[in-house]
Amino acid sequence: MKLLQEKIKQEGRVLKGNVLKVDAFLNHQVDVFLMQQIGKEFVKRFSTEQITKVLTLESSGIAPAAMVALELGVPLLVARKCKSLTLTDELVTAEVYSFTKQETNQIMISKQFVAKDERFLIIDDFLANGEAAKGLLDLVEKCSATAVGIGIVIEKSFQNGRKWLNEQGIHVESLARIASLNNNTVTFVVEEMK
Amino acid sequence: MKLLQEKIKQEGRVLKGNVLKVDAFLNHQVDVFLMQQIGKEFVKRFSTEQITKVLTLESSGIAPAAMVALELGVPLLVARKCKSLTLTDELVTAEVYSFTKQETNQIMISKQFVAKDERFLIIDDFLANGEAAKGLLDLVEKCSATAVGIGIVIEKSFQNGRKWLNEQGIHVESLARIASLNNNTVTFVVEEMK
């Protein structure tokens, strides 16, 4: 997605340890017009999937996922990272390992918001090693629902997440695929025009 | 806001300790069409304020705040509750006391996303004792910016937050004002039609 790639080139910053800082438009300050365009692009790419609900993980996934849900006209379900006072009914949990923090955390949804034939589109801001994606897929499976695919805003294609998802036969669409962050420079994967 | 009041009546649940559970459309599953209507309503109510940016606190404020920002055509800034790997520059922090958890937590924004004449509209999902609102106002003040007002989705008018904000002369707009949650019943504040 050209608009997103340009934004990353202009406002993204490469930090040590292959970290791409996109606080200017995605993770802290949010460019909501860009999020709306991202929403429309995901809907186009998953147009044949008969999605009934969008699933994301708090909190950086919420803005793009909300725009996808709005464009599709379906509800959004936000998997939580912390137990809350009100999130108590029919909890389904999964574990997500964080390579950065070197710790495992639980994520959870309430099964009461998962219909029997629910067809989820999973949306997340980043795909690196795929740990969050695995956790979200695990939640969907534990609810006996279907994940029609995963939409990723920024994919670090030099890490293992995409490869693992491809091996599982999951339909993945990433709007910006980063081949390398070497020399403080963002290099995108060269893809043939579809 | 009638649509919101009806949704609260239909899908909200009153739990022990004056807790209103709105996981069905606001805090866990999100009704994005309702969020869009909420966004339009806030924009109407603050129409004279020349807002340059919307400010909210992760994570339940993000969906309604993103719709406000989209409707206004301005960026959204999301105050974070946890230090992140990439949120490191020019951090401004404030403290938020949680009556529920009986603990004080830090919230933070990066000053680099606050322009000199920034005019923030603060959006949050709930107003009870006003601790989150105080923290967000504190962040704005520490950045020498202006808070033009606070838009609240659901106000517990029987708690002290609204009173405190009124005493400070802050322009507060709450889309649903709850007078009482006694007897497991939601009773709204009766307001004269504007």
Describe the structure.
2 copies of one chain form a homodimer. Helix content of chain A is about 30%, strand content about 35%. Chain A has helices at about 1-10, 30-45, 60-70, 130-140, 160-165, and strands spanning about 15, 20, 30, 55, 75-80, 90-100, 105-110, 120-125, 145-155, 170-180, 185-190. In chain A, the strands form 3 sheets. Chain A has a 6-stranded mixed sheet, with helices on both faces. In chain A, helix 2 (about 30-45) crosses helix 3 (about 60-70). The first copy, chain A, is globular. In chain A, about 45% of the residues are buried. Chains A and B meet through strand 3, helix 2, helix 3 and strand 5 of A and strand 3, helix 2, helix 3 and strand 5 of B.
Radius of gyration of chain A: 16 Å
Which chains have the largest interface? A-B, 38 and 38 residues
Enumerate the spans of chain A where pLDDT stays under 50 for 5 or more consecutive residues: none
How does the helix and strand content of chain A classify structurally? alpha/beta
Number of helices of chain A: 5
**Arithmetic mean pLDDT of chain A:** 94
Helical amount among residues of chain A, as a percent range?
A: 25-40%
SSE arrangement of chain A, N to C:
HEEEHEHEEEEHEHEE
Distance between the termini of chain A: 11 Å
The largest pleated sheet of chain A is described as: 6 strands, mixed
Oligomer: homodimer
